[in-house]
Amino acid sequence: MTAQPPHDTESLKLLRRPQLRRFLLICAALLTGLLFALSLLPLPSIALADTTSASDNPLEASVERFLMEQTTSLGDQVSVEVRESPADLGPCASPQPFLPRPGVPQGRVTVGVRCDGDGARRTRYVQATVSATVRHLVARETIEPGERIDAAALGWQESDITRLRRGYLDALPQAAGMVATRRIPSGATLTENMVRQPWLVKRGDTVTLTAAGQGFRISRSVEALENGGLGSTIRLKAESNQVLQGKVTGPDQLSVDF
Q1: Which residues neighbour 132 within 8 Å (Cβ) at sequence distance 6 or greater?
Q2: What's the pLDDT band for 107 if we cut at 50, 70, 90?
Q3: Share of the chain residues as helix, strand and coil, in percent rounded to the nearest 5
Q4: How far apart are CA 63 and CA 11, in angstroms?
Q5: Which of 9, 15, 95, 157 is most buried by a 10 A CB count?
Q6: Are the CB atoms for 106 and 132 separated by under 8 Å?
């Protein structure tokens, strides 16, 4: 066998280079087309399906929307989780959620849902959890029972609402100037049952009752049968031993309207 002359090998290499270049160009064109086709896939619709899975159940979706509307006062960091019922109660036509208990829903709540169907209205009850980060009052120092609460003894803290007791205080006037009904340790969250208004009328004291009506106004001395703060309604006893009710309007002052 004779060796191939060197100039023939070089000629073959020159012939193969254009073929290799065309092959690479074809591969690049195919890759570009594939990437363009992938970019046309409906990826946004896939992501949307993941975030709107709750809307698959109209009843749960209506409860979630209802609770979000009812909790706008809690701020922007509110989340609602509707728990599925273990029993299949069938479809609910035109769901109309409502709260069995008045007030802003928070923590674990029960929502009633009226369903129209088959010519009759049915009511179902759905369990849900409302979570939110809220700002509330805490004691900066220990406050003793009967002590008048000064604003300097109060501070602010943010907590998950599901970890707070109902009736927490979230406004300074709700506690500043009030009287502690119990010992409040430093760092404790203040609630409604920890404070009361200062007594302007005390049980057993003789106070002035003012009765007013159209064209007349009279005052008389009566005995207070209960303690009362500003704006509260308490029982009182007149000279004839008649028991009435009056609204506290000031120190040892009550009023009744006719």
Answers
A1: 71, 74, 75, 77, 78, 79, 106, 160, 161
A2: confident
A3: 30, 35, 35
A4: 80
A5: 95
A6: yes
Query: Identical fold at 133-196 and 206-257?
Result: no
First CA to last CA distance, the chain? 133
- Each domain of the chain, given as residue ranges in start order, spans 54-132, 133-196, 206-257
Cβ–Cβ < 8 Å for 128, 72: no
Residue 53 has pLDDT above 60, yes or no: no
CA dist 200 and 198 (Å) reads: 6
Give the pair of three-digit tokens for residue 4: 């191939």
Cα dihedral sign, 111-115-120-125:
negative
Tokens 């009967």, located at residue: 146
Domain 206-257 in CATH 2.60.40.730: no
The pair of structure tokens assigned to 148 is: 């008048």
The share of the chain scoring above pLDDT 90, in percent, equals 47
Assign domain 133-196 to its CATH architecture: Alpha-Beta Complex (3.90)
User: Distance between CA atoms of 27 and 128, rounded to whole angstroms?
Assistant: 56
- The span from the CA of 103 to the CA of 121, in Å, is 25
Dihedral pair phi/psi, residue 91, rounded to 5°: -70, 155
pTM of the model: 0.59
